[in-house]
Known about the structure:
The structure holds 2 protein chains of 2 kinds. Chain A is mostly beta strands. Chain A has one helix at residues 21-33; strands spanning 8-14, 17-19, 36-40, 46-47, 64-67, 70-79, 92-99, 106-110, 123-128, 139-144. In chain A, the strands form 2 sheets. A 5-stranded antiparallel β-sheet of chain A has the order 8-7-6-9-10, with no helix packed on it. A 3-stranded antiparallel β-sheet of chain A has the order 4-3-5, covered by helices on one side. The longest helix of chain A has 13 residues, at 21-33. The longest helix of chain B has 10 residues, at 41-50. Chain B has one domain. In chain B, a hairpin with a 6-residue loop joins strand 3 and strand 4 (66-67).
Amino acid sequence: MADAPLRADLILEYPFSRTTGPVIGAFLTGLREGVLLGIRRADGTVMVPPAEYEPDTGESLSELVEVGPAGEVVSWTWVDSPRPQSPWDRPHGLALVRLDGADTPMLHGVLVDSPDELATGMRVEVVWSDEREGHIADIAGFVPKEPS
Amino acid sequence: MSAEPDGGAGEVRLPPSLEGVERVQSVRTPIRLEYDYRPSAAAESYLRAYEDRRIIGHRSPVDGAVFIPPRGVDPRHGTATTDEVELPDTGHVGNFCVTHLPIPGRKDLELPYVSAWIHLDGAAVGFLGLVRGCATDEVRIGMRVRAVWKPDDELGATAENILHWEPTGEPDVPVEWAGNRAFLRGQAGLEDGADDEATDA
């Protein structure tokens, strides 16, 4: 009998870390401290997540402002089968959330059990991870916000 | 004020809620790719041969160049190769690198270590291996080496059967004929050992 075809697990892994620069570093500092930050553009609008440079002109930006912790779902999709690399191990939503005080939306997960619980325009609020280190995963996700 | 060399880090203003906290300066961004590796027919045959301590290459039908590991094709011409050639477990160092820094996930590599292109006798190209058995500063281009194999009862269908390569003590291959030039030397009809005068001429 012929031998079974060969196979092997091959894992290619690089433990990179990268420097953040002053603005992304500030954003991540905020996450660690449980504060969401955007950056004010030349026209007075607020961009989240913050960028170091004015998108239109390339000028440096420097004024970080607090946004959230609640916001509005601008667009969303449903992830029924998260891939192994996903931060989430169960079905969840992915949404563009425009935080209160921000003019641009940011992408993150929405922790609900069914796409029936998601709608464009719905209000959501941030859920922080228990252990935070200055990483986007410091945000556990967003959940629907009950009207107060 | 003009831009500072650090990109103006001193100018970035945080809201009062974050005054005085230590700022994040780096972030983890690991990359991980998981493959389910299935060898091609040529690679399968190559790996099986290792079980019997044999090393095989493929001979090109175009000019006889022997490629290792065999890929089933002569990459220079796009011509399929099927002619398996058994190669000896001796050769020379075509090029090498001494590494002094650890690689994450390879704690088994004692520092410093030497990785080298090993050009087997009769092969047109080199393949990677570790050189041990001498001081790192004694490793040189053209140094003759032989394979050090795992014990027979540990052999598997894997190139890891060769633990490393060690010096044979034979005279070096002249640098001008080391590495990929070894094949050209064979093409010129100059075989090992009988041609030192000829190459000097």
